Amino acid sequence: MSFVNLHVHSAQGSLLDSILTVKQIAQYAKENGQPAIALSDHGYMYGSLNHVLECQKLGIKPITACEIYECDDHLLKNDTKDNVQPRYHLLLIVKNQIGKDNLFKIVSEACTTGMYKKPRVSVKWIKENNLGEGIICLTACQAGRVSRYLEEERYQEAEDFVNLLKDTFDYVALEIQSHPTTDQLRCNTSIFNFAQYMKIPYVITTDAHMLSADQLDTHSIFVEIGEGREAGETYLGCHLQNEKDIFNYLGDWNLDRVIQQGIDESVKIANMV
């Protein structure tokens, strides 16, 4: 099995954030010899059923996921100009039937009790309610808590948070993303070094919001229309990729063995599902 895209957004579930249709996602996997592909929309799971159906038509293994918004306390809803509770991204992948039921409960809690600007939920609440069983956890993009903590040199907090994730979910991996930007390459190095220190696996993802790199200008229109964008996000390289694309984007990293291990981890995770 070749590289598996585990971090993918659709226009159906990530409104004004992705221009990928669910059908295009399944078709890409088929055309690129990728036997599995995930759908991991922001905060919602509207497209999950259609994703499963489209993948099954083409003989592709559908991977159900959601990139949730997590915060310290999703019951707190009183942000002020001088006191804003940070909100982070976290990717949760369904491993089995128990995991699917649990992810539905997590997303439902975020979309009801935790709704405040975005659907939010705390990892502490997930742990306290034993809802991490059957779920694989990835640490998301530069808007994820681990990436933010490492960037801000808050190393003990990053270590504590990863240990919380390990205590909550069945399996945890740090995300290294295949984007050709200076910020992302710096972040990738920090994550790789942190993964070695924590003795935890890392996986390469693409955080796909479009089909190919030449759609960047088209996608930017949706970003301009959308409101409340996450600070610091960039969409350069945020498209569906294959192994050749990944080695091309991360080639400046000059660590082919490290890149291949991150690709192999995507296959390992897909096989867990």
What does this structure look like?
This protein is of the alpha/beta class and 273 residues long. Helices cover 41% and strands 16% of the residues. The longest helix has 17 residues, at 182-198. The chain has ten helices and eight strands. Strand 4 (115-116) and strand 5 (118-121) form a beta hairpin. Strands 1, 2, 3, 4, 5, 6, 7 and 8 form an eight-stranded mixed β-sheet that branches. It has helices at 22-31, 48-57, 97-111, 123-128, 145-151, 155-168, 182-198, 216-225, 243-249, 256-272, and strands spanning 36-42, 61-70, 88-94, 115-116, 118-121, 135-138, 171-177, 202-205.
What's the short story on this structure?
With 273 residues, this protein is an alpha/beta fold. It has helices spanning 22-31, 48-57, 97-111, 123-128, 145-151, 155-168, 182-198, 216-225, 243-249, 256-272; strands spanning 36-42, 61-70, 88-94, 115-116, 118-121, 135-138, 171-177, 202-205. It is built from ten helices and eight strands.
How are the secondary structure elements laid out?
Blueprint: H1 22-31, E1 36-42, H2 48-57, E2 61-70, E3 88-94, H3 97-111, E4 115-116, E5 118-121, H4 123-128, E6 135-138, H5 145-151, H6 155-168, E7 171-177, H7 182-198, E8 202-205, H8 216-225, H9 243-249, H10 256-272
Parallel strand pairs: 1-2, 2-5, 6-7, 7-8
Antiparallel strand pairs: 2-3, 3-6, 4-5
Helix pairs in contact: 1-2, 5-6, 5-7
